[in-house]
Amino acid sequence: MALGDVDLSLPQYRVLAFLAEGSAAASALAGKLAVSRPSVTALVDGLVGRELVERAADPSDRRRVDHRLTPAGRRVLLRADAAVEARLRSLAAHLDERDADAAMAALTHWGDAIDRARAAKQPVASP
Q1: Contacts of 50 (CB under 8 A, 6+ apart)
Q2: In sequence order, what are the residues at sequence separation of 6 or more whose Cβ sits closer than 8 angstroms to the Cβ of residue 112?
Q3: Neighbour count for residue 61 (Cβ, 10 Å)
Q4: What is this structure's pTM?
Q5: Which residues contact 84 (CB under 8 A, 6 or more apart)?
Q6: 3-state secondary structure at position 112
Q7: Is residue 127 part of a domain?
Q8: What gap in Å lies between CA 121 and CA 23, rounded to an integer?
Q9: Do the beta carbons of residue 69 and residue 122 sit within 8 Å?
Q10: Range of the domain at 46
């Protein structure tokens, strides 16, 4: 199992991937994951405990708590992405060469799209 290699469940991976696009409140994460807020809270608690996600009060609304990736969370997400890609490559090896090449090209395009979408939502670090 690809995500097992980086000690993540699929729901944890999805949370990290969503947070790579920007910080989010628990209600927004629950909506994206199509689960209840208590389920998201339990899921995020585990990621906070592993220092992959952090909670921070929204300065413009003290009632809102945002969740965001930590640097460690970004590193784990990159490792998870690589593990998923490796697993998909191993599956593509079961196709004939032409279909495998097409499948891998498509995956590369999707990976580029994901990377660009994440980069577009990342704040630029100041020197």
Answers
A1: 72
A2: none
A3: 10
A4: 0.77
A5: 2, 3, 13
A6: helix
A7: no
A8: 10
A9: no
A10: 3-121
